[in-house]
Amino acid sequence: MVDLQVFPYLEVRLHFVLQVYERSTMARAQDKKVKSTTKIPPHNLEAEQAVLGGVLINNEALNNLMDALAPGDFYREAHSSLYQGMLELYTLGEPIDVITLSRTIARKGLTEKTGGNEYLASLVDAVSTSAGIVHHASIIKDLSVRRKLIAQCSTISDSCFQEWGDTEALLEMAEQSIFDIAEEQINEGFQALNDVIRSSFKKLESVAGFDGYVTGIPSGFKDFDGYT
């Protein structure tokens, strides 16, 4: 014989189970939605590894990079720290190899975060030449600019959704932020050191072969202009 007093209890339990199921279903759906809309920022770890490995096997290659490629251009934080260490060693006039770089990283307490000596050795093994280092650095720089654009566009978008504020000022902020990124890209172009030296020598040769009285801007004082 069925106890009728049990039914209200079962009904409550069933209602509770249904609520839990609905919430879990909604949570899974929301999680899938987040995963589908979340995008990984553009980057190329292989190019970053190629640049770091190229510098380790040929320190002189850093001459072609240091004025245009900054530590912040690397996507992986460990790579940024390693490149910063390379720049510091270069500034001190010390060789850049697995031993010296690992010591520099260790002094900062970043050995574990950067992978240690094993990872440094793998960077050397990953490349056989530094010939393509400028090309790989250009890839890193290009993707860095894209990440900066994404970040700025996100900031601009958030500002646009705010009800308060001056629209004209918002436009100026948006234009300036994009202009700053574009200007950085233009001013920090890559140029091989050999090309820079060759161009400089051509300018010196043209000045040396100049037959005029003054090679620069005349000052109006002949004796002074004779020294220029």
Q: Hey, roughly how much beta strand do the residues contain?
A: under 5%
Number of strands: 0
The separation of the N and C termini measures 118 Å
The ordered H/E elements are: HHHHHHHHHH
If helices are DSSP runs of H or I spanning 4 or more residues, what is the number of helices?
A: 10
Largest sheet: none
Summarize the structure.
This protein has 228 residues and is mostly helical.
Description:
The chain has 228 residues and is mainly α. Among the domains are: 92 residues, DNAb Helicase, Chain A (Orthogonal Bundle); 39 residues. 16% of the residues are buried. The mean pLDDT is 79.
Which key features would you list for this structure?
228 residues, mainly alpha, DNAb Helicase, Chain A, 10 helices, 0% strand
Summarize the SSE layout with pairings.
Elements: H1 6-37, H2 45-57, H3 77-91, H4 98-107, H5 111-114, H6 116-126, H7 133-161, H8 167-187, H9 193-208, H10 222-225
Helix pairs in contact: 2-3, 2-6, 2-7, 3-4, 7-8
